[in-house]
Amino acid sequence: MNKITCLLLALVLFFSNNTFAQNASNKKIIVITTDGFRWQEVFKGLDKDILKFKPYQNGDSAKTAENFGGTTIEESRKKLLPFIWTTIAEKGQIHGNRNSGSLVDNANPYWFSYPGYSEILTGQVDTAVNSNEYAPNPNTNFFEYLNTLPFYKGKVIAFGAWDAFKRILNEKRAGFPVINGTHVDEFLLKDPQFKMVANLMKDTYQPFGEEASDGFTNSLALMYLKSYKPNAMYISYGDTDELSHAGNYPEYLKAANRFDNYIKAIYDFVNTDPSYKNNTIILITTDHGRGDIVKTQWTSHGQKIKDAHEIWYAMIGAGVKPLGEVKANEQVYQKELIHKVAEIANLNFKSTKD
Ligand SMILES: [Zn+2]
Prior knowledge:
The protein has helices spanning 3-23, 39-44, 48-51, 61-68, 73-80, 84-91, 113-122, 142-146, 165-168, 171-174, 186-189, 192-202, 214-228, 239-245, 249-272, 337-344; strands at residues 28-34, 93-95, 102-105, 156-160, 178-180, 232-237, 280-285, 310-311, 313-317, 324-325, 330-333. The chain is of the alpha/beta class. Strands 5-4-6-1-7-9-2-10 form an eight-stranded mixed beta sheet, sandwiched between helices. Strands 8-3-11 form a three-stranded mixed beta sheet, with no helix packed on it. Bound molecules: zinc ion. Zinc ion (ZN) binds next to loops. Residues 35-36, 112-113, 241, 287-288 line the site of zinc ion (ZN).
């Protein structure tokens, strides 16, 4: 090859690569979290050391053991999280089993909700974000970035059970709707199916105050997914955190089991709808871990709770390698997760702080 041919070839490769990079950002993206759900239950199922304590039994330890226990941890975790331990274990990947060397952790030093969600959604740690009452997030989040790209613009939405998500995602600046807590925004109420769920939610006892029970958040999110077909969506559930703070182990497990069923319903829809099938990346994770039974701290989290930075994540969908349960040594931080999604989607999302 002479020099000119070589140069021409290089130019052709350069431009075709660039065109590829610009056209490839058409993957649909769904991020799902469940608040403060421990890696211990994800990988080991029901924790007998917790269930044996009467104050945590909520009066039904036998029934709980029957529903979610097992003679092996594999049996127990599959009963608790059947979708994760069948479909995701087979077609996706699950990280965070510390007993197998897979370490996933908060990089933020706080180990509670707002800093955790901020770390997931902005892909970085901002140590100034240090309270659940923190003002609207100063940092750009991944969905806000997506909403600036032609494929995603106006096709981005978030549903959060917790009423802090309008601040965490800085709805005003970010420019996409964030439906959070027990409040359903006006534009959705024009649709009778949303109006019905909103009315039902209003007429129902809400055990967590302004935070919606997950069933409501899930109904709204799933209806929206099916009817309006967003190109990027965030859904955040909260029952797992509320029920563990309450020290109610049976209900905490039931909430985790329902969560597994929510993600199954989302995946089943994605897998049957032609616009999502083979074109959607799903990331599933949690904002922080919790303590262990030692000193009875499994109910809590935050800096004072040993090991509450220990988390997990799972991925499934287009371009996600089917690694199953990762048993190799690795160290992954929460702030990396959204960048992994961006990389698979061939998107150039940059966090500003690190
Ligand atoms: Zn939390």
